């Protein structure tokens, strides 16, 4: 089975902090994605990557950056966390149209 | 980016009832997928559809790829308590694009 592991299930940070969300997949997938999930808004794509050191902006990239130094790892970075970035963050990987998701990180920014 | 129009937004049903939900789009997708998200977990793939008109089953779940390629339907027969969760439709246009998701249907089953 594909395993996508997100490093934290719950995270509490203060406004202005730099936040790193880590994601690792074990299936040698080319493509990796970061989504955020908010009530009533569904899943919105932040960034994705289809190769090491490659990144593409999704629908809502503002306030975020990403890093893909190794194929299995895709990191989401909040340069200066703000309260409107409180959300559930979901990482996913794929080799085709089928995405496999991690369990999510619930981030609260106070 | 575009989001799919998924309805209903939520459903309150009795155990044993059948459930129907659908997704529509103003543009064509090459693949339609349905995911389920349990509370506190990430979405899990239920069914993937690849051809217009295709009807695919997975146990009590049946999904259809609309003939126009702009819509898809998911039916759950004889609902049970573990069917509770959020169901998402997703469309894929092809290539390295990510999925476009609907906003989800919350399924709540009353005992």
Beta content of chain A: over 45%
Sketch the topology of chain A as an H/E string, one letter per element.
Answer: EEEEEEEEEEEE
Number of strands of chain B: 11
Low-pLDDT ranges of chain B: none
Mean pLDDT of chain A: 94
Main β sheet profile of chain A: 7 strands, mixed
The total count of helices of chain B amounts to 0
Compute the CA-based radius of gyration of chain A. Answer: 13 Å
Determine the structural class of chain A based on helices, strands and strand pairing.
mainly beta
The helix/strand class of chain B is mainly beta
- What fraction of the residues of chain B are assigned to beta strands by DSSP? over 45%
**Continuous helix count of chain A:** 0
Task: Write structural notes for this entry.
The complex is a heterodimer of chains A (about 110) and B (about 110). By secondary structure, chain A is mainly β. Helix content of chain A is about 0%, strand content about 55%. Chain A has no helices and twelve strands. In chain A, strands 2, 5, 6, 7, 10, 11 and 12 form a seven-stranded mixed sheet that branches. A three-stranded antiparallel sheet of chain A has the order 3-9-8, with no helix packed on it. Chain B is mainly beta. Chain B is about 0% helix and about 50% strand. In chain B, the strands form two sheets. In chain B, strands 2, 4, 5, 9, 10 and 11 form a six-stranded mixed sheet that branches. In chain B, strands 1-3-8-7-6 form a five-stranded antiparallel sheet, with no helix packed on it. At the A-B interface, β5, β6 and β11 of A face β4, β5 and β9 of B.
